[in-house]
Amino acid sequence: MKKKLIAVVVVSLLAAGAANAAEIYNKSGNKVDLYGKVKGEFDINSNDDRSDATYARLGFRGETQITEAVTGFGQWEYQANASGPEGAQSEKTRLAFAGIKLGDAGSLDYGRNYGVVYDIGAYADNLTEFGGDSYQTTDNYMTGRSTGLLTYRTSDAWGMVDGLAFALQYQSANENRDWKTSNGEGVGTSLQYTIPDSGVTLGAAYANAKTSDATDSFGYKIAQGEHAEVWTLGAKYDANALYLAATYAETRNMTPLTLKNAFASGTDAIAFVDKTENLELMAAYAFDNGFRPSLGYVQSRADIGGFSEWVQKYIQAGVGYNFNKNFMVDAGYKINLLNDDLSNYGINSDDQVVFGVTYQF
Question: How many helices (H) and strands (E) would you count in the chain?
Answer without folding.
Answer: 2, 20
